[in-house]
Amino acid sequence: MIMVGKLKGADEKYKKVIFTHDMTVEDREQYKQLVAEAKKKEKDDLSGEFIYRVKGAPSSFRVLEICKRY
């Protein structure tokens, strides 16, 4: 996983390779719940100044409030 960054300069056939964390069933369920929470927060944000994203490794996910840049 340390060498994943080197794929940027790889052949065209490797450009579509995607690496993600290996998650348990519980981690996937937690992730889905947090994504739903982030979407709800973004929808309810009347100011429109923030976007909400789920970040972190499995079992330590969190919803981040990110300020939009104009």
Mean of the pLDDT scores?
87
The first-to-last residue Cα distance is 34 Å
Range of helix content: 25-40%
| Strand adjacency order, main sheet | 1-2
> Which structural class is indicated by helix and strand composition?
alpha+beta
Strand content: 15-25%
Secondary-structure blueprint of this entry?
Elements: H1 25-44, E1 50-55, E2 62-67
Antiparallel strand pairs: 1-2
Structure description:
This protein has one domain (22-70). The mean pLDDT is 87. It has one helix spanning 25-44; strands spanning 50-55, 62-67. With 70 residues, the chain is of the alpha+beta class. It is flat. It is built from one helix and two strands. Helices cover 29% and strands 17% of the residues. The relative contact order is 0.15. A two-stranded antiparallel sheet has the order 1-2. The protein starts with 24 loop residues before the first helix and ends with a strand.
